[in-house]
Specification:
Order of helices and strands: HEHE
Radius of gyration: 13 Å
Number of helices: 2
Low-confidence stretches: none
Oligomer: single chain
Strand content: 5-15%
Strand order of the largest sheet: 1-2
Length: 64
Amino acid sequence: MLEIADAVISVWGAKRVGMHLAPRGDSQDMHDSNPPATFGYVARELGRRGSASCLRANTLDRTD
């Protein structure tokens, strides 16, 4: 993910690059044992690179 961010930043510049993160990405059998640590690290690294934005989104729990 960060390699891709670096490549895009090298072309467009950090102020024109953002990333959408979904820490509760448990769809399609995806799991993370420690989402706060993983996504916190990614957010810090994007900030270190001067990324324009980092959007964090959660999915809703539905019990329909």
